[in-house]
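Narrative summary of target 7.
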Amino acid sequence: MSFITVDPECHFPIQNLPYGVFSTADNPRKRIGVAIGDQILDLGVVKNLFNGPVLSSQLHVFDEPVLNGFMALGRPAWLEARASLQKILSKSEPVLRDNADLRAKAFVSQSQATMHLPANIGDYTDFYSSKNHAYNVGVMFRGPENALMPNWTHLPVGYHGRASSVVTSGTPIRRPNGQQRPDETKPPVFGPCKLMDIELEMAFFVGPATTLGNPVPMDKTEDHIFGMVLMNDWSARDIQKWEYVPLGPFLAKNLGTTISPWVVTMEALQPFKIANTEQDPKPLPYLQHSDPYSFDIKLEVALNVDGLSQPVTVSKTNFKYMYWSMKQQLAHHTVTGCNINPGDLMASGTISGETPDSYGSLLELCWKGTKSIDLGSGITRKFLQDGDEVILNGYCEADGYRVGFGTCTGKILPALTLS
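Modeled conformation, tokenized:
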């Protein structure tokens, strides 16, 4: 227990302690903090309390405006920091609890803070690792007999995304303009996207760097996975349909990718590990790992649109539906010798469950526009309209507490008028 009061349904108990970057009106400098209850602990203020053998000589990382330096230190530093934080925030430890002056300097109310991207993201990769989602999309466009491409069960399919358009929760997203071909008997047209979609995903941040030419073997992957965030990979489906052959996603995906501001460490998620998805056929040796590295993370998608008194949940699913694990994604990504750097972001791809109410995209929920999603009060949606807000939520649940990610939100702005 912490001396900071934490509601049982709060995402940020002492068992969590996620990292983020924040600023305040009276201090616009970006600082590294940890969420505890409805507060943020400013690590730059309390850094001298990190006196372990690893961090005592690396305290400068807590003065930086991003988490890259801390991520680069690796698991020994991450574990030491977590142990120190749980100690100084515990109900029985007086160092912060009984020092009113230090507490006044060290704590900031989350309601008074502005959150920023937690890291400088040099590279961003998006995988396609939910079998249910891949199958659903394949059925829509190729039929059930050819739903999964021949390589899908042999390797984690992915593509390199656009790091510059990754934004933090709350950032509005502009409806894109682009080429579409709604009538396949006619030439393409140019204009605002009409099939604006979401993709419920999760992503992990990379820790220590590797050098070019050196893969990360499976037994070392965990040393490079720092923590996870929620992600909404906004997608312009009509632009995507026309452009994706033969090289895959491009302008349909680079319009914006939203992540939650708090990075939940893998250590905080350890109690929620579950068995990996059974894979058939058995992957090649470099992709095999028997230790559990799937997680019971409850996920929800809600829409808040004009005419509703409150957001309406349209999907409930779970991270456990991932076919390829984060370890497999990282091992595959680097098997060619591709180097990684602290702050690189690797996403899961859309996460869909086994039933229609657990699908992670509007494309699936409206089944390619053949049915409407009922939001109540006579309001329906197939794809997003201007002004619609998407709210992603995710958490793990134990006896008496939650370890959560907060929310990941974004609202659609109208397209620009282009001459």
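The chain has a mean pLDDT of 97.
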